[in-house]
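C-alpha cells as discussed.
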C-alpha cells in the first residue's frame, strides 16, 4: 500500500513541474543559508539575547540565546505545510498551487531578513 502511494507521488506532475522545483530549491537554499548564518553568528556562550525589538517600545523580549531558533523552526514548519497544501491543491487548481508554492521562498526571505536583524541587534 505504502509503496504504491510513493510511486504515485513520484510519478505525479507536481514533482516534475519546473516551477515547483525552482521555488522549492530557492526556498531550501535561502533557509539553508539562514541556518548557516546562524551557525557562524550566534555565540552559544551567550546566556541572554534580545528576541524582539520594536522601534516604538524598544526591546520588549529578552530570553535565552537558543530561543532565537524557535521562530525559524516554525517558519520551516510553515514551509513544509505550504508545500503539502500546494501538493493537495495541484490536482484541482494549478494556479492556487503556484501561489502557495511561491509563498515559500517569500516566507524564507522574510525570515532571513528577520534573522539578520536579530543577529545584528545582538552583536
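Sequence:
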Amino acid at each position: 500500500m505504502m509503496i504504491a502511494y510513493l510511486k504515485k507521488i513520484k510519478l505525479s506532475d507536481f514533482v516534475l513541474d519546473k516551477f515547483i522545483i525552482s521555488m522549492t530549491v530557492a526556498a531550501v537554499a535561502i533557509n539553508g543559508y539562514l541556518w548557516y548564518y546562524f551557525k557562524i553568528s550566534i555565540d552559544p556562550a551567550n546566556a541572554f539575547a534580545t528576541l524582539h525589538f520594536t522601534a516604538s517600545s524598544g526591546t520588549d523580549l529578552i530570553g535565552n540565546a537558543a530561543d532565537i531558533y524557535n521562530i525559524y523552526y516554525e517558519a520551516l514548519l510553515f514551509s513544509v505545510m505550504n508545500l503539502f497544501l500546494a501538493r493537495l491543491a495541484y490536482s484541482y487548481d494549478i494556479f492556487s498551487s503556484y501561489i502557495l508554492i511561491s509563498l515559500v521562498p517569500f516566507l524564507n526571505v522574510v525570515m532571513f531578513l528577520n534573522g539578520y536583524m536579530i543577529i545584528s541587534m545582538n552583536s
